[in-house]
TrEMBL record:
<dbReference type="Pfam" id="PF02588">
    <property type="entry name" value="YitT_membrane"/>
</dbReference>
<feature type="transmembrane region" description="Helical">
    <location>
        <begin position="88"/>
        <end position="108"/>
    </location>
</feature>
<keyword id="KW-0472">Membrane</keyword>
<feature type="transmembrane region" description="Helical">
    <location>
        <begin position="55"/>
        <end position="76"/>
    </location>
</feature>
<keyword id="KW-1133">Transmembrane helix</keyword>
<feature type="transmembrane region" description="Helical">
    <location>
        <begin position="21"/>
        <end position="43"/>
    </location>
</feature>
<dbReference type="InterPro" id="IPR003740">
    <property type="entry name" value="YitT"/>
</dbReference>
<dbReference type="GO" id="GO:0005886">
    <property type="term" value="C:plasma membrane"/>
</dbReference>
<dbReference type="InterPro" id="IPR051461">
    <property type="entry name" value="UPF0750_membrane"/>
</dbReference>
<keyword id="KW-0812">Transmembrane</keyword>
<feature type="transmembrane region" description="Helical">
    <location>
        <begin position="179"/>
        <end position="196"/>
    </location>
</feature>
<feature type="transmembrane region" description="Helical">
    <location>
        <begin position="153"/>
        <end position="173"/>
    </location>
</feature>
<protein>
    <submittedName>
        <fullName>Uncharacterized 5xTM membrane BCR, YitT family COG1284</fullName>
    </submittedName>
</protein>
<keyword id="KW-1003">Cell membrane</keyword>
Length: 206
């Protein structure tokens, strides 16, 4: 217990702060998934692919999301180090648990897809900002994008954009155009929140 209360270096969050940040960040992300599922919407990145697979196969989102992230931990370890990998594994595992818990305690009798998309975008943006602030992500394509940027000179943004384009292309084959349109709005809201609020010179994840 004394370890948990130990004062961290000035440029690093304490363990208690990291735990709180990961719990809150993943809760917001899991809430975002609930909004998306209630509106039968999708999003980008591994979360979006996990939703598509869960819709198609009838599996739970949490299980698919956890399994699809497994191959990326090796890249995370090699590219970002052990501390980052442990935090990311903890974040993915915690979010997976939240996605099993939340449907048991909450639901939506009425939710317009556009409202669901905007609410999903806002909660996802807030969740990702919390995780970034505490040196974690939800794994997936972002890790590979950073690795390719350093190793091959390929811009990380283009890698993520290309993956998202593939996810939404699959979505067009599975859903009505308006569903995909609403989903794109939700993804745009998330990206606007990240672009507006995440600055490495202001918040350096440790």
């Amino acid at each position: 217990m004394a370890m948990l209360l130990e004062t961290p270096p000035a440029d690093r969050h304490s363990l208690n702060e990291d735990i709180q940040g990961i719990l809150v960040g993943t809760l917001f992300m899991a809430l975002s998934v609930q909004f998306l599922q209630a509106g039968q919407l999708i999003t980008g990145q591994i979360a979006g692919l996990s939703l598509l697979v869960s819709y198609w196969g009838g599996w739970t989102f949490g299980a698919v999301f956890f399994v699809l992230n497994l191959p990326f931990y090796l890249v995370a370890f090699l590219r970002m180090g052990l501390r980052f990998t442990i935090k990311t594994f903890a974040a993915v595992g915690t979010m997976t648990l939240w996605t099993f818990v939340l449907p048991q305690v909450m639901g939506f009798s009425t939710l317009h897809p556009l409202a669901g998309a905007v609410l999903a975008g806002i909660t996802a943006g807030a969740g990702l900002l919390a995780l970034f602030r505490h040196g974690a992500t939800l794994g997936g394509v972002g890790i590979v994008a950073l690795w390719l940027q350093d190793a091959k000179g390929i811009k990380a943004g283009w890698v993520q954009l290309s993956f998202d384009a593939c996810v939404f292309l699959l979505a067009i084959m599975m859903f009505e155009p308006m569903t995909v349109f609403y989903s794109l709005i939700g993804a745009a809201v998330t990206n606007i929140m990240i672009i507006t609020n995440h600055r490495r010179d202001r918040y350096i994840a440790r």
